[in-house]
Amino acid sequence: MATTFSSLPIIDLSPLHTAQLAENEIATLSKQFGEVFSTTGFAYLVNPPLSFDHEEMFAVAREFFALPTGQKMQLAKRSFRPTNENTYRGYFPTQPHLASDNLKEGFEIGSAEFSERPAKPQKIVLSEPNVWPNKDSFSAQSKLEQMYDELQSLAAKLLSLLAVSLGKPPDAFSSWLTDSLSTLRLLHYPALSRGQEYTHDESVKLSCTPHTDSGILTLLHQDSTGGLEVLNASGEWVSAPYVPGSIVVNIGDLMTKVSGGRFTATMHRVRAPAPKSQSQSQSPNDGFGRFSIPFFFEPGEDCVIVPALGDGEAVVYGEHVRRKMSTWVEFQEDSGYDTGTTEEI
Ligand SMILES: O=C(O)CCC(=O)C(=O)O
Ligand SMILES: [Fe+2]
Questions:
Q1: What pTM was computed for the model?
Q2: Could you tell me the keywords of this UniProt record (predicted)?
Q3: 17-25 long-range CB contacts below 8 Å, 24 or more apart?
């Protein structure tokens, strides 16, 4: 359970810029992560060892979501476009009929190493190849693939630190990286229209309902719109505003299991972006909504995850994630998804 916090801590990743961490740096960072993940479960990471910045990432998201709806729908998962082959990787449109408090469109990629469709027929194929817009209309495929690889390497370094913080050798969890199912997801939350800011009961209007993430950990790039909130132990929603240059990190359910409950997968949600302001806006996204780019760090489908602490049972990751998937809006059966109202940027 998360503790009663009122803001999120900041961890400086500058030491990770060198190829090899010194013993004392490993000890200091793993202690920091151990403390943060057993209290807030969420933190800001600054000075991450990545070759790209926020601006480059969000330029990619803007380029993708500005594509005509028809072109995005060509990349839709089969549940949204039955003639398409992909079931897991690709585009999902907003679903206003199913979930007005979960209004988001997204585009997801996995590892470029999954280049062939597995022979085993399954309703949802977790290790299927990615799909892409054609290169004439979308220039950022190789950039996104590189972002994926760099985020995977960063997450793997953090995993070693988590192993140490649980009293294990740095490579204790390295087998999880085999055929990793990590997902890089571009998300767009459209802005509300005027008058839609509140639900009929006057509670806050959300565009992502409260949930915990399912995997090992999540590395989130968010734009400056704001809206992410994190639940503390007193039941209060604590705002996690944009901190320039930072990545938000949080623990997923799997790591709670592995740590025997020591690490906390904290509930979080996103408030719906405000309608276009009437004054001259400072925000480049004004009226278009919010962009965020979570990277979900995940083990391979067949990976058997054995808890490092406590007496919990081992889980096979593929089974764990398929169980959780039934709660995700983009995997609900729905015939009323929105394929025609995306504004051009
Ligand atoms: O958009 C955000 O800030 C958070 C997204 C999120 O929590 C998720 O996709 O799991
Ligand atoms: Fe999340």
A1: 0.93
A2: Iron, Metal-binding, Oxidoreductase
A3: 17/47, 17/49
CB atoms within 10 A of CB 298: 29
pLDDT tens sequence across 305-331: 999 999 999 999 999 999 988 777 666
Q: Which two tokens stand for residue 111?
A: 């590892």
Pocket of ligand 1 contains residue 183 by CB under 6 Å? no
304 bridge partner residues: 316
- Pick from 270, 290, 298 the residue to mutate for probing ligand 1's pocket: most ligand atoms within 8 Å of its CB: 270
Q: Which ligand 1 atom is nearest residue 268's CA?
A: 7
Ligand 1 contact via 298 beta carbon (within 6 Å):
no
Both tokens of 70, joined, read 């028809």
Q: What is the DSSP letter of 209?
A: E
Q: What is the ipTM of this complex?
A: 0.99
Given a contact cutoff of 8 angstroms between Cβ atoms, the answer to whether 320 and 265 are in contact is: no
Structure-token pair, residue 266:
């904290």
The pairing of strands 183-189 and 105-109 is antiparallel
Q: Is the CB of 187 under 6 A from ligand 1?
A: yes
Residue-range domains of the chain with CATH: 10-116+124-194+203-275+283-331 (2.60.120.330)
> What do you get for the CA distance between the two ends of the chain, in Å?
41
Is 208's C-beta closer than 6 angstroms to any atom of ligand 1?
yes
Is the beta carbon of 228 within 6 A of some atom in ligand 1? yes
Check: CB of residue 116 under 8 Å from CB of residue 129: yes
The two beta strands, 304-305 and 315-316, are: antiparallel
Q: Looking at the chain, which runs of residues are DSSP E strands?
A: 10-12, 42-46, 90-92, 105-109, 183-189, 206-211, 217-222, 228-231, 237-239, 247-251, 268-271, 290-297, 304-305, 315-316
Ligand nearest to the CA of 294: 1
Atom of ligand 1 nearest to the CA of 185: 9
